## 1
Amino acid sequence: MSALIRRCFVPVLPILLGLLSARAGEAPPPLTPAALAAAGAAVESSLVRVEYVLRYDNGELPESGGWRERCPGCGRYHGTRGDRFIREERPLETSGFLVAPQQVLTRDTMIHPRFVEAIRVRFGEAVVEAQIERHAAEQCAVLLRLDAALPGTEPLSFVATRQAAPLLTLEYVRQNGFWQTAVKPLAGTVFSVEGQPGFREVPGFSLILDREGRAVAASMRDELPLDDSWQGLPLDWTWIPAAEMQGRIDALRTAVDEGIVRVTLNFRSPRSAPGTGSPFGRSQRYGGDEDEDATERNGVGLMLEGGRILVLEQLTPPLTARLERIQVHRADGSVGAAHFLGSLKDFGAFVASLEEPGVALVHDTAPPQMLRNKLLLSAEVRVQGTERTIHLQHRRMAGFDVGRWNDVFPELPGESRHHFLFTLDGALTILPVRQREPLAPQERWRRDADPIPMFIARIAGACADLAAHVDSNNVPLSPEEENRLAWLGVELQELDRELARANNLSALTRDGAFGAIVSYVYPGSPAAGAGIDVGDILLRLHLDDLPQPFEVRIDEDHFRSRPFPWEQMDQIPEQYFDQIPSPWQPAETQFSRALTNFGIGKAYQAEFSIGGEIVRKDFEIVQSPPHFAVAEQFRSDVLGVTVRALTYEVRRYLQLAPEEAGVVVSRIEPGSRASVAGLKPYEIITRINDEDVKSPADFERLVANGEMLRMNVQRMRQSRVLQIRMDVPVQAPAEALEIDDDQ
Amino acid sequence: MLCLHGSLVLGASGAEPALELPWAGGLDFRRVVRDATDKVFPAVVFIRVLKESHERGRKSAQEVSGSGVIISAEGEILTNWHVVDKAIEIRCLLYDGSHAVADVVGTDKDIDLALIRLRFPPGTARGEWKVAQFGDSDALREGDFVMAMGAPWGLSRSVSMGIIASTRRYLPDASEYSLWLQTDASISPGNSGGALVDTEGRIVGINTLGVLVGGDMGFAIPSSTIQIFLPSLREHGRVDWSYSGMQLQPLRDFNRNIYFPAETGVIVAGTDPDSPARRAGFQSHDRVVRVNGRDVTARNEEDLPAVRRLFGKLPRDEESTIVFERDGQIHQTTLTPRQKGRVEGEALDCPRWDMTVKAINQFDNPDLFFHRPEGVFVYGLKSPGNARQAGLQAKDILIRVDNVPIRTIEELWTEHARLVADVANRSRVVLVVLRNGLTRQILLDFAREFDKE
């Protein structure tokens, strides 16, 4: 605290001393309110209003990126929602200073020209149309050229010599519904910035006057250099003529067209677990672009040097696991293939190698702070379905922000989710990319955060040293591996508030906000090896690369906690078989999913409450044995049945020892031989023709030979024998029609 | 209501002049019905039973009504097991308008049959009761006229008329030991225990089940089945089944398109774990052909109840000789059935916890028995109540209460009593239950008195 105060105060001292000395020398008359008002009145005839008449463009809403000052509430710069002005049938208004008979200095709203129907400049009742003539290179300003002079106005005449304090600032703003001028002494706070020139604070869009009301300078940004170099005619600033600007934009268009392309990602169809036909099965994530069960996604790819492409799509491990094909749509309409190289572990993007290298964009190498207040070019690139749209315009950076790992991020006012920024020479400097949230895997209903603007140097650095920056767990996998899950080897029950209190864990779990009670420990599992027992309570996981511990939460599916309707199985019509959720809980839970996403092979500590003691146990994230949803399976079309191997959780439910033979029925085709014979989902087939069925492969072999299949079937404690004829169509044989009734 | 009763009785039994036959040599159907009714109706009783129930989460008395028919001058009444099960008091309204209290003589849940006996009127050695005679249900054919007599919906004493729709109806979920007579005579709740009467005015069945939706389907226990078990009920108060744990299926199953290539015998579907049949070494697909020298055959599922009765009546704790075929070879082995015993667990009310529990019974709760052969499960939950609010569900098996293992009703009773007595000092207890094969902790807070008015 004290250091902060010193920093603010020390630079202020020389200014105060300067003021004091000036006062001691000449002793000018004090700045009375009347004197301030008189100074403002002196330039009244040079103050105009600039009106932007806005419109929709192809259903898109205009958005203004212009800013004046930091928001007092949050300290950031905000854009303005332009659609409001369309809806309210009024123009977006700002002020302007008449610097020449037909030239107006005004704030740069950064509204894309496609949204601007007209720019009008008003003085009293007089209105003329205007066009942007020049863009200021280092101020947030444009110069308008009026179609005609405005009657009654008088251009500002700037004093030729540099003026000393006291000086005044004048703002012309609409406040409380009325246009007004605000005149006050120029006495802003002075900032000394580490490694950069210091500056003094000034209202973001102001005219600077001497005490007589003569224009000394104008400022279109909220800071002034500490010396008086800022004084002088605004027309002497560095300006880029509108035509030149258009030329630079046109040049950029070609580069962007080739360097920022549409990429189509194709994913293998996800496997559907049995019994998930009902809405009570596996929960769906948000549909659309964030659907984890998607089979196709289109996104934006950034061509890199060395025949690589950075695909700016945030894929989760389950989705990347199914990634099958990457197609790059080039500017010339051709489609090229690319091959996955690695997912960036910190950013929502992955790198792929191109079969045919593309034209990469030049990257800006200047230090980011050099971009401060500079005029930049912006390419808004969106891919929606198979359409890529590109909108180019000029843009400016508002400031800097600090984020994760103390990284400095650019701050762009207004919309920035799809915006790539370039220097005027066309070098890429800022791109939109998502940051990966390390704790995201635990949130079942998470929605991906928006992309944020980031300096290219940060991303390019990660792409150049891929080995150190990829997540080796977030990779395409084989169909056999794609549904792999990590496990600890326990079944868990959620800890609620009451149970946390009963187990004296309220203080450690924020009154039961997280935690899970071990309700079963699988023999031979990591948990069993660590001596975990039923009733122990799992609280948190500690991983080196997590900024905070992962709090274990179990999102229980209460529908599934009801007893399975075994006794009603014979009454359920066969068309509903697919909708019966399995009697055992699915192996994929929020917990196992999170563990898998953290990465198989990683070390972690699990924090348990065991008998009232808090204990940390060391584990490694290991892959579980096959579970029901991905168990080895065989589908017999001639029988109309799919069977799966007895996996660990099925054996637990059915209390079957590891050596006991059997396969579990996971699907019955309505009307099939199996269905007619009365086979039901989740029954166990133990023997066929008096041979043990130990695996789906056994099942396949045993049903392949023989005209008659005799199956031993078990449903919990009930057994029965099915006799299925394979050599006749699925109809009752003729002899069955001789109904035997000898009674 | 009473008025309605009266008029019904009068209308059915009033002595009106007989109507002449409309054509000579034919059958006067009204005469037939009236004769039959006159024979049996005086023996039909309307029964109101006050019974104990644990279903709604607390022990409560509940009144139900049913029917019965007097079959002996000693005042024996046949009715259904489900009418008088757990009865505290049985009141009977007789044909002559008098009423009497009855006591249970014997019951059997598996065939849903009960024998009760009227108490003699004070000061008499025996009552003056009209008695109905048994007919032969085996002689019935589909299409034969029958009458259902009873008290549907608690409206005492009525007759409905129909035909035998099926003489051998197999209802797999209704009884493993008996076939049913199916009739289209209207059978409604309250008819239970009443008589199904043939045109000769003899009892051919006891009406037991009706189909509420769709109507026109009633089911009665055939008199031939009743005759088999009546002596046992009368003498021992129960049927006293033997248990061998043999699961059977017929040689032919049209519905499932399953046909075993044999003309005699019955197929062993499987054996219960730890059962005499499992110990005897029976395997699925064995074909049993002879039991203690008697040939057995279940061609169709309708034949199964008789075969099961045979197994169910084997002498217990004695070796029976079973001849069976396996892989084309004839084998012989011995089977030693044991007593089947209770077919329903004992229930217990847990006041203040607002729930009732029941002991797990192999026959009543096979799914729970699968998870835990011995134990106590949540039977009923009061609503609102502490147990329900704590998240307990019906069929949760109680494993531990306050860290004390629970295996029997007695153990739970002890723990419950101890904890509830100390409610002023401690009103929260952790229960460990087994739900769907997984243990769960549940915190039961029983501080609140839901009974407080």
## 2
Amino acid sequence: MRYTLIFLLLIISAPFLQGQESPDPVKIMETASIMGKAPSFFMEINMSINTAKGSKERTLEVYYQEETGEKRNLIQISAPSFLRKMKFLTHSYKDGTRAKWLKTSKGVRRLSDNNSSESLFDSDFTVEDLSDFEIKDYSLIYLGETTEKGFTMDKIEARPSGGQGSYAKKIFYIDKTTRLIRRVEFINQKGETEKEYLLEETQEIEGLYFPVTCRMTTVKANTNTVIRFNTIDTHKEIPAKYFNKGNL
Amino acid sequence: MKKIYDFIITLPARSLRKWGHWQIIPFLLLLLYGGWIVGKLDFSTDTALDLPENNSYRLQEEMFSKYFSTSDFIILSLSSENLYSQQTLDRIKLLSEELSRIEYGSSIISLATTNDLLVTEGELINIPLLAEEPDIDFIRSTIDKDPLFKHYLQSEDRLFWNIYLFPDEQGTFTNSELIETILTITEKSPLPVKLFGKRVVEYKLLKAVKRDFIILGSLAIIIILIIQLLYTKSLFSSLILLIGPLCAAFLTLSVMAFIHIPLTNITLVVPVIILSLSTSYNIHLYRYIIQDHILHLSLSHATPIILFTGLSTLMGFATLLFSSLEKLREFGAILMAGVILATTVTLFFLPALLSKKESKLHEKAAFRIPLVPARMLSLLIAGLIIFSLFLGAGIFKISYDYRQNTLFRPGSSIYEDSLFVSRHYGGLNEIELTIDSGEEYGLLNPELYHSIKRLQSTINSLNAVAKTISYIDFVDWLNKKMNSESDGAEEEIIDSEESIGENLEIITSNDTGLPIDALIDINYRYARILIRFGAPPGVSSRKAVTIYQSLKDTIATGCRENIPGYIYTLTGEAVKSETIIRELKNGQLISILTFLGALFLILLLRLRSLKQTAIVLIPGILAVLFFLGAAGWLQFPINLGSLLAVAIVMGVSVDDGIYFMLFYLHNKEAGTPAPVRATLRGSGKAIVQTTVVIICGLSVLLLSESYVLIRMGILIIGSFIFATTATLLLIPSFIRLLELAHKRKRKGETQCVIR
């Protein structure tokens, strides 16, 4: 009897003795986002670009739609007035490819893939920074949990596959509750932090979490860009033609 | 007053009687402390002068630095037999990568870091000019067609590739560290590389300062020792005459280290001057020792002369304290400290050293200086007046020079660099023309855009202008690309805020690697046209300034015609030099008048005779006239060194006249027959000796690499020779005339009484 009880105890405690398995970083990144997860939304954001030589403001309208695995994003400048005709459209397809177009008063032009690391309207954000993370382009390592300023986060290291990429690695801090990316460290080949993204304030809209203020700092240049999300509307009817290149 | 005067005059003798050898101890302690602190003496350069804080130019420059990125960069010029060979391009890439990795560099602009924006088949592609596998034809055709890339990436004559390195503005490195790191990298490059720019000039100047300090300082000591040997024919006497000045010069360097004044290409003259001045004071004391053979008695006789000459020199340097430029005030303070140290060492340290060794001192037989015969006097005075007028005319020819290459003599490395830059780059002098549109986004106004374009074109058409660049070039560049798809269509004229604004937004967002932020501020209110111009190094200062002034006039006219009502400002090194010289000139006249006025009053108190005071001042006035006139005739440009030199000339050139007059009064009071002749016999040798020592000490400046020091040396030496000649020929003659006039007056009075 005694030996049977010991045997049963061993069987029950075995999983705990072996230790828990690490969470899957891929699954974590799939649920994470910078701007919040919703099938479609409209945002009006204010971008303050701060440099050592002064600051400038840009007001943007952002339309987003996700359908059958394809994501579409339209950004148009509403202020200053001389940039009202500038629009930026991206399509991310199921196969992982991406298409981008820029519309100016001179017409519409497609942007090559070379442009993905270029800054958005001369800010510290690039097109890539504000887009959804392309998991297949990176190898991910789960670095554990961490708590900062009362927020518990999953820490994940992402290295570009095949060594290609603007940075040697990025370290993501994903809020376990909101699934918003609270912090990103962009590390270069020398191991130095070149840029840092920080989510400063969040809001909840009908059970979904979105940023209120976030900041991207370019460390060496001592510049930063602050984005304030003035309006977020997840119910706004966004016609499909908005995301049509021909409609730009 | 007399009690205070007597107290001061007798203090050295009383101190010697009381303390004897022990007077050396405080000096030894000072020397020990000086030895510890002199190791902290810094070396620096005086290429960058700070204008006063409230100066309008400085305020403007500081304001614009908040809006525009820095124009502080180093240019690396790379040569190759074939600029477009695979090998050359690979080497540029490698060199750019190595340079971008250095700790002190903030950013690099080169072929390897520059991107082109290709607009083709409805696509906008940001493409690096130097890709992994470079397309040589593409690179060649892009640069050939594109004035923007040509401007930044190649020399004017298309023989050299450029790499610009912008140092980290927040960095804590020294300029030498930065340049040496770059040199270490470029030395390994198979491509010959030349470096130039303001920082490179400063680096080479700093090396020259260090070299000059060691070589010229050592030479000055050796030369002074040799002169003393020739005079005294005694090694003991010569060494004694050298120890005091060496201590004075050493302690002056310690004071500089203590108050953190660095040794620069200008302040390098300070230890040489103090060494020479101190030697001349020692000679005065020494001569009295030889004459009196009793030390404390000699000291009583020599003290008034040394104190007065020291005081006059002190006042000459004190005029620098009133300058609006901080650097000049520093110079004045350190020179005054040096004179005080020189005087103290002569009156307290040297006697303590010599105590009970008076018998060992020697001197060569005296030589005579003749008195000018009466019949020649009027001829002499006439000749002097004509010469003075000639010199005076030279004052109106005084010019300044904004070119840094004029700091160094032909054959020196910086001069050769200037020739190279002038030949291949059209010069490195820049004027920054900043236009204020008056409001945020004001530069997007198409009318203003085209007006600025016309203005830039006008400036570009001038012969003296090598090239210009502004934000217009960037906008036009992209506009051309955006319209390039339309075969055969004319380039679309920019006629709306949108086209200018969008182009700027695209350029700033797509990093071309080119510094548009040096040409337009972030809110598109201030625009800058960078105008590169130059007068080659061989061109005289006067001509160079004429070219510069003519350019400024054209800019002013162009702005009035094309952008009336808009505020424009000129900045840049050439403009800054002009502003500094104006400040110097304004201060110069005030300094001279202040010095003469103050010295006049002090001498009047001592001599109690207006005529005698006026006579004593003549050599000083003539010396300054000589300095300024010769500078004008010889086309030596005025700069900071000149102002310092004028103060030196003013302070030192009256010393001999004061010495002569005091010696004469002493002879007259003692009832010496023919006091003028006796004074000339007694003091003439010392006057000649002190002048020779000072001139020989300063002659080492002629061996410097720095033209500033060479010119300073030539003018100071010439001024002293002129002043001493005037002292020995004119002062005795004028005193004799005064005596004759006095005799006639007394004779006339006596005759009146008899009648």
